From TrEMBL:
Protein name from the UniProt record: Chromatin accessibility complex protein 1
Quaternary data: Heterodimer with POLE3; binds to DNA. Component of the CHRAC ISWI chromatin remodeling complex at least composed of SMARCA5/SNF2H, BAZ1A/ACF1, CHRAC1 and POLE3; the complex preferentially binds DNA through the CHRAC1-POLE3 heterodimer and possesses ATP-dependent nucleosome-remodeling activity. Within the complex, the heterodimer with POLE3 interacts with SMARCA5/SNF2H; the interaction is direct and enhances nucleosome sliding activity by the SMARCA5/SNF2H and BAZ1A/ACF1 interaction. Within the complex, the heterodimer with POLE3 interacts with BAZ1A/ACF1; the interactions are direct.
Family annotation (PANTHER family): CHROMATIN ACCESSIBILITY COMPLEX PROTEIN 1 (PTHR10252:SF54), HISTONE-LIKE TRANSCRIPTION FACTOR CCAAT-RELATED (PTHR10252)
GO biological process, one term: DNA-templated DNA replication
InterPro entries documented for this protein: CBFA_NFYB_domain, Histone-fold, Transcr_DNA_Rep_Reg
Residues annotated as domain Transcription factor CBF/NF-Y/archaeal histone: 16-77
Comp. bias regions, Acidic residues: 114-130
Keyword Nucleotidyltransferase: yes
Keyword Secreted tagged: no
Chain intervals for the UniProt region annotation (Disordered): 108-130
SUPFAM superfamilies in alphabetical order: Histone-fold (SSF47113)
Gene3D superfamilies: Histone, subunit A (1.10.20.10)
Record keywords: Acetylation, Coiled coil, DNA-binding, Nucleotidyltransferase, Nucleus, Phosphoprotein, Transferase
Amino acid sequence: AEMATARLSTENRLVSLPLSRIRVIMKSSPEVSSINQDALFLTAKATELFVQYLATYSYKHGRGKEKNALTYTDLSHTAEECETFQFLADILPKKILASKYLKMLEKEKRDGEVREDEGEEEEDEDEAVG
């Protein structure tokens, strides 16, 4: 038991993310029944490296470099523009003003109504030809 504890404390120093929190997140999946200590450590390390990569890439390719800061906008731009990170687009959406969003919804609604009307006209034409 002492060796396992010593190994765990060594592993904790190799990752900056808290293993106990990662274990909780992993256990929240219904498919996971037990978590091997190595799997926990490797998941934590991989997550840490991924977050570092995302942050570094976003910083280097964003406007934050000018201000010497990493911003949410840099992260969302990376998620939108970089193919590697596009799976994060829903998690890191571009920030827009509520008023702009409401206008977009209105436009989509109007466009949808126009399309429905066009669809009905096409059906009428098909019936006339047949």
